[in-house]
């Protein structure tokens, strides 16, 4: 009787005090309904909550209830509830944290004699992680919440008892696979195979399928952890049925491993940090095992080696042998992804490759179209990948499966047409470390440089040690200089301010200087009527490899546009400097001086394998030179014209 009169007064009071009150009628939401497992002071307990009658266990009932504001959008709300014990003057504050339809956590107070929810601590401050008891609903969960566990892993485990010891059996495998068509689809569960290590007493042999009950995030000691409630349905032992899993958010370990803390029982409070967890697990990504990784064909022999390739977003280092291609792609400063390809079928330049990504479950097929290697460059295109259809038994697969896959995956249409990628550009593998090749642009030039970003421009800097002491004579004439001369034709030297003043010997003072930037040529080719070149600069902090588009715009002028990475954007031309991915352009004008001994040369890359190398040795060095400079140039011109026509034929 008393209670009924008191409720409206309290509600008014609460309103006046500005405390969030959503509902005053003391009823539990429907998701409270059911039987809940929890470890109440260390023993297995089943709690029956009835939403309709408002009872909590056998002898407590809802007296007052305050819903808290939602911090995150979820189906349920956090609440503070005042429970009255039937027949006794005992009121208990319960702070109930909603985690999922299968998991709730609570903090319980001691018996209070006053039935006033305002006096509950949780009204002003909700409990912390370590104050909470976790309740698991006693049903078989159907929940999709382990997106963060997706993949295939080998793991080591360490149990905190009987002296412990780490068991790192290579057959400890965690499988969280999303294979369409397989019975375990949709991220509702994952499989852990625990195997025995002979020298670790606590190790055991068991295969457990864990189902997901809910996931949430909590802060502890300035770290953000992700918690996952797990159920092991198939066990008859109630104690072993529920587990709590903890992992650090944004975990970036150098070896690409993932660390987990796992509880022994259905209890999350014991998880205080990854190191202090009762069961510690270290996951390593592994590649799925498949007979399709056994090679069936051979890649061109001269592809063997280590390479570099720049994707649209991430760069990869690539390793190739006769049969396999391996990509290692840095996804961030810490995380990398490893991909394996194995040769399955080959016709001409097209290679059907099976593909697996380390840590991912699916096996797929993809077609590589490889242009024959020239210098340190291999150009290739990759078709769309097709997933290997799931069959429970590999032996039932069609014998002509590879032939069919080849037809499907390597058809020219698949290589050249994708709806959003009509004008195709080849990907490029660059030999890494690069082997220098003769630069397609040679001679001595002055240049003007263009960029909207000051930092893109070449500026003067003092590289390393100056071999001879710098001349004290002040420079009267500064020019820009770009040159690639007979000394080392695989290098292009760029000096933003080169001193052209001569000293007492009649030599330019600049001769004593080291060039500001030295680019090594790694390869060049012609594609879509555009000449591309790759350079290498060990000292380039942004990208050691750079892609350039170059073009001869008159007999004495050359335009070059530099991309920001080793990949030239599709819309880049020789004068681009205002597009995404290419923000620098330089215009060269020939400035060969009498004693420079630096004949201009230009190679558009039209026939990379049939280059007449003799052109460069025609006159080497001023001492032995019997052509005058003018004659040499005339000769060059004739030769170039001749070349031009002979290529045409
Ligand atoms: C319930 O409280 C916890 C702990 O303060 C918080 O992390 C969670 O987001 C809250 N839930 C909702 C639905 O607001
Ligand atoms: C655990 O075993 C895996 C595979 O068997 C191995 O790659 C890894 O280096 C081992 N880890 C440790 C810490 O020994
Ligand atoms: C958490 O961070 C605060 C401020 O950044 C610091 O004062 C405190 O000592 C840290 N606590 C722990 C447990 O590291
Ligand atoms: C190529 O590499 C794969 C993977 O490491 C290896 O299994 C294979 O034996 C290698 N092939 C040759 C011909 O060395
Ligand atoms: C590499 O091999 C292919 C054929 O297998 C050949 O066409 C190409 O010229 C070779 N390239 C080099 C640089 O040896
Ligand atoms: C040329 O550059 C040097 C060093 O950068 C500078 O000291 C000198 O004054 C410049 N001379 C002229 C004529 O600009």
UniProtKB/TrEMBL annotation:
Residues 25-120 form the DUF7044 domain. Residues 144-283, 436-575 form the DUF7042 domain. GO terms for biological process: wound healing. Pfam families: DUF7042, DUF7043, DUF7044. Residues 1-24 form the signal peptide. Residues 295-387 form the DUF7043 domain. Keywords: Signal. The keyword Signal applies. It comes from the Eukaryota. PANTHER family: LD32918P (PTHR22255:SF1), LP06548P (PTHR22255). This is Uncharacterized protein.
